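Hello again, I could really use a second opinion on something today. I owe you a coffee for this, so here goes:
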Amino acid sequence: MEGIPDLKILTDRYADTTSLERIVRDVVPDASLPAEQRALRLFHWYRRMFFHYRNMGRDRRDALKAINSYGCNLCVSQAAVFAALVRTAGLEARLVAARATGITPSWSYSTTTAGTVSTP
């Protein structure tokens, strides 16, 4: 019996995570929204999809693998994956990281032209 290749069953409340473009399309269906609103929608979706936990795999900054397989990362890798998602939405993003001696944890964030979005 021949199966159906690449079958995906999605609800209207779930973003298709097979590509960054599809995530952006599903999370921000109205591309005419102001940049700040698009960035916030992506941030809130990402915040629900990820948790802060050690992931030391070599591919931890591969955005799709991190989103679909791991679901966790530490600060800088979380910010790097989020920056990739924001760039896919057509917003400018850069990764800023800092480490202070004796202070735990270190922190990082992605900043966009729409403003700054912290990643815990």
Remarks:
- The first strand starts at residue 51 and ends at 52.
- The CA atoms of residues 74 and 105 lie 10 Å apart.
- The chain is about 40% helix and 20% strand.
